[in-house]
Request: fold
Amino acid sequence: MLIQLVLAVVPAVLAITLHEAAHGYAALLLGDDTARRAGRLSLNPIRHVDRVGTIIVPGLLMLGQLLTIHRVAFMFGWAKPVPVDPRRFPNPRRGMALVAVAGPLMNFVLAWIGALLMPAANAPDGDSLGALDAALATHPFVGMFLFYFILTNLVLGLFNLLPIPPLDGGRIAVGVLPLPLAIRWAQLERAGLVIVLLVVFILPHLIDFDPVGAALGTILPWAFRTVFWLAGHDVSDVGGGLL
Reply:
């Protein structure tokens, strides 16, 4: 269980840290140095840790899954938002949308890098296995670490594209919607986290309605195959029964 915990925690910390750093660097490139002055342009995870979102919620999710299904199948968490001052952008709405895009984009690039690093492996005993399953069979620790790394980055990137403020997708929506609708949509940020928790965690248990889980269940296998294809791997059976 300890090994499973480490293999799941380290990729999650890397994914969240680099996601937040990407927001800060994007803002800096667009003319806002608020994150740099606040010391948030850092790869030090401690600078981005939110006690509830980075430690307590993911920790409870991981322990609960390891104790019940003996593996980590789903993760959710957040870090302290990187401070951004949109007034420093030539076009504040467009600038905030570009800063928001940077986080998920970083996660997708990291997932691709994880697929590039996945060791090439032949299936043992002549079995017909895809690239990921073969790597897990012949390089279990490296393969599982990279599997969690790819999974965490894909889930974090895709989840953050939900068009609900304060998620990145919500801020992207505010940046592209007509101004009157954008103003109303931005007002959702006050209750955005409650809406996300309601849709993701509470409704699925109360009324057997899980649109986010269903969407991820459909998109994740495709996303895995895509990053493995982009990394030059065989995608005939990527993921097997892991997803």
User: Anything to note?
Assistant: The mean pLDDT is 82. Residues 2-230 form one domain. The chain has ten helices and no strands. Residues 42 and 155 are 23 Å apart (CA to CA).
